[in-house]
Design a protein that fits this description.
mainly beta, 2 domains, 5-stranded mixed beta barrel, 1 helix, 2% helix, 38% strand
Length: 193
């Protein structure tokens, strides 16, 4: 008996047979019905999906098992969500900061160049030449905050605000999800005339 690398699919109400020749390692989408006959000679494996199945020819034996999804785990830290910079001037905690060459500064909303240098929010205060941790993504909570749901902006001197009536460029730095928690997400600045 020779090895025949074919996958045969038969539909129950119409005697139609579909045959696909597979090269080693090839993947072919084959629609399957509830009653499907698959030729498993020469290590062909069929993986069923709701509407389409993939027929894969493998040169070695593989075991295909149906695995149920487990419960959702706790949220993890967003990759690259914080980094450490050196304070080039005194930095206030829970304010937006701009970083240039590894040095952290408070942004000035009337200086256009600062608009594209804001990278996140300082997680704590820092004195000159101290390290400051900057959150660039993910949740940030501060018990003294009292936010309304919606966008949070970088205001004067990096202060976080939901009021956009200050002078200069406008930069969303996050979104309030509770009165004391924001999701940090620095967006594209809008230069206002």
């Amino acid at each position: 008996m020779t090895c025949d690398p074919r996958v045969i699919v038969q539909r129950p109400q119409r005697p139609v047979t579909i045959t696909r020749m597979l090269a080693p390692g090839a993947v072919v989408a084959v629609p399957l019905s509830s009653t499907t006959v698959v030729d498993r000679r020469h290590d062909n494996t069929v993986i069923r999906q709701p509407q389409t199945s993939l027929a894969v020819q493998h040169p070695v034996h593989h075991v295909v098992r149906r695995v149920e999804r487990g419960p959702q785990g706790p949220p993890g830290e967003t990759a690259g969500a914080t980094f450490t910079a050196t304070a080039a001037e005194p930095i206030h905690g829970q304010r937006a900061v701009r970083v240039v060459a590894g040095l952290a500064y408070a942004p000035d909303t009337t200086t256009r160049a600062h608009a594209t240098e804001v990278v996140g929010i300082a997680t704590q205060s820092a004195a000159l030449n101290d390290d400051v941790v900057v959150r660039t993504a993910g949740e940030m909570t501060e018990p003294s905050w009292i936010w309304q749901p919606g966008a949070v902006y970088c205001g004067t001197d990096g202060q976080l605000t939901q009021d956009t009536a200050f002078a200069g460029w406008l930069l969303p730095v996050g979104r309030a999800i509770t009165p004391t928690t924001i999701v940090v997400d620095v967006d594209t600045p809008v230069v206002r005339l």
